[in-house]
């Protein structure tokens, strides 16, 4: 758990693990879209004209978006390619860890919080625009859908 000295935890120190993928293929500069929400359905009650009932519908997860410098060869990109080009899906579980900047007792990164994403699969792979006038790193963006996530601390 995070100590009182470093609360709230920083958002820049995180790690992503994909089941069956090497750790070397899980370094990303940005993560967004870790979100679940409920929609509602309006239901009118006969004889009641002052309001409509708002009933909750099942939760849905927003797509997870990951960004990093483009990799020339990568098992993660091969997984994306098979899903997008060949329509061959192999859902995997993802694990996202928010890490303590101070690390653990052995100096290794210590997770403060974790999210377990169930049945994730890629739905989009994109490379940023390239411009000969800028000296920027080429960035690849991977969009991943999943059924739901479970948070732990």
Description:
The protein has 153 residues and is mainly beta. It has one domain: Pnp Oxidase, Chain A. It is 8% helix and 46% strand. It has one helix at residues 75-86; strands at 14-18, 30-32, 36-43, 53-61, 64-69, 92-100, 110-127, 139-145, 148-152. Strands 1, 2, 5, 6, 7, 8 and 9 form a seven-stranded antiparallel beta sheet that branches. Strands 3-4 form a two-stranded antiparallel ribbon. The radius of gyration is 20 Å and the shape is globular. The protein starts with 13 loop residues before the first strand and ends with a strand. The mean pLDDT is 87.
Tally of helical segments: 1
Instruction: Kindly report the average pLDDT value.
Output: 87
CATH architectural label:
Roll
CATH topology: Pnp Oxidase, Chain A
Q: Strand content of the residues, in percent?
A: over 45%
CATH class label? Mainly Beta
**N to C succession of SSEs:** EEEEEHEEEE
The shape, in one word, is: globular
Number of strands: 9
Supply the number of structural domains. 1
Radius of gyration from the alpha-carbon trace, in angstroms: 20 Å
Low-confidence stretches: none
Percent range of helical residues:
under 10%
Structural class: mainly beta
Q: CATH homologous superfamily, by name? A: Hcp1-like
Query: End-to-end distance, in Å?
Result: 7 Å
Largest sheet: 7 strands, antiparallel
């Amino acid at each position: 758990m995070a100590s009182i000295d470093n609360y709230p935890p920083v958002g820049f120190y995180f790690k992503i693990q994909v089941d069956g993928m090497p750790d070397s293929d899980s370094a990303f500069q940005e993560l967004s879209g870790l979100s679940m929400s409920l929609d509602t359905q309006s239901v009118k009650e006969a004889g009641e004209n002052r309001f409509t009932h708002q009933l909750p519908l099942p939760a849905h997860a927003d797509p997870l978006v990951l960004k990093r410098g483009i990799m020339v060869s990568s098992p993660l990109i091969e997984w994306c390619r098979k899903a997008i080009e060949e329509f061959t899906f192999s859902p995997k579980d993802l694990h996202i860890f928010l890490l303590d900047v101070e690390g653990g007792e052995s100096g290794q990164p210590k997770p403060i919080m974790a999210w377990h994403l169930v049945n994730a699969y890629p739905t989009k792979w994109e490379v940023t625009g390239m411009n000969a006038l800028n000296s920027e790193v080429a960035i690849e963006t991977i969009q991943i859908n999943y059924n739901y996530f479970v948070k732990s601390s």
